[in-house]
Design brief:
Layout (H helix, E strand, L loop, with lengths): L1 E5 L4 H10 L4 E5 L17 E4 L7 H9 L4 E4 L16 E3 L6 H17 L1 H9 L17 E5 L3 H12 L3 E5 L12 H7 L2 E4 L13 H6 L5 E4 L8 H9 L5 E4 L21 H8 L3 E3 L8 H21 L5 E2 L2
Parallel strand pairs: 1-2, 1-3, 3-4, 4-5, 6-7, 6-8, 8-9, 9-10, 10-11
Antiparallel strand pairs: 5-12
Helix pairs in contact: 1-10, 3-5
The chain binds 1,4-dihydronicotinamide adenine dinucleotide.
Amino acid sequence: MTKIAFFDTKPYEQEVFERCCKKDMEIKFMEHRLNRETVDSAKGCDVVCAFVNDNLDETVMKGLNEMGVRLIAMRCAGFNNLALKALGDLRVARVPAYSPYAVAEHAMGMLLTLNRKIHKAYNRTREYNFSLNGLTGVDLHGKVMGVVGTGKIGRVFIDICRGFGLKIIAYDPYPLDGIEYTDLDTLFRESDFISLHCPLTDDSYHLANEKRFAMMKETAILINTSRGALVDSVALVEALWNRRLRAVALDVYEEEVGYFFEDRSGEVVDDATLQLLVSMPNVLITSHQAFLTEEALFNIADTTIGNIEEFFSKGTITHEVTA
Ligand code: NAI
């Protein structure tokens, strides 16, 4: 029997993992996140199944090695929360793709909502306020969309944008045929809308920063559905105060751990930057939900279970992450 310690469980994923689980696997579902305080709860398990906000630092890696865990099965694409240099005997699998459509469609949904102020209209009409004052948007048709990162999600997003008649310019260190590329500064200068679809790396950390906010059109809208730390959020608040851009959509936030995915509605929020962002009428925040479609949840569970099965039956990992 392969025993799996499943951290940060949410009801919507437990149900689908139970459905995909094999007969020779036993999943121990736990609500708490994996970090140095909770690592002991993986004792007796062969696999740790973790998600985006679990913190697999050097201490956690050491603990997992000592207790004989053999595989870290990430049920997400990103792995920036793993201390890969401290892996020791551990192997890591991930889910490289589960639905690029889910994320790309959410990014476009956020842009449409902000541009046409649908979030405001929804609240108004619920109180029988049918005024249109302040709800004017712009046509997307004919405007310039800057896409940072033209991988799986970026390419689906570009297809969606082309359907709206947007002109695309892009930045990616590995350009593809059929897309017009430019450097990042030009992209920030010339775009009417900017959508981030690259991974978080040393190179991309705070790529949207004070210098680049100053380059943006004052009418521009920024969308980040990728990773929070691509955007310097303190500089973003400053830029919004200085009316350096029209609006921003965030599905991710650099200090999201502890807030996103959780109900904190009854508590005082300590994060002043998050409070300021939430308070602004031209900021739309969703809590890392861009991936959340039925198809994506099924693909995540199916691939994660497939990764575990492959490793324990053949010793290989098709979707391996190495240091
Ligand atoms: P991918 O690996 O297919 O594509 C990433 C692209 O970014 C590649 O073309 C790569 O060359 C490019 N890239 C790398 N470094 C770059 C840089 N410094 N500047 C510009 N481009 C760079 O990844 P995929 O599947 O398209 O995912 C993109 C990102 O979306 C993931 O890294 C993840 O952070 C985020 N994501 C967010 C989700 C959400 O629910 N909000 C769900 C899934 C992914």
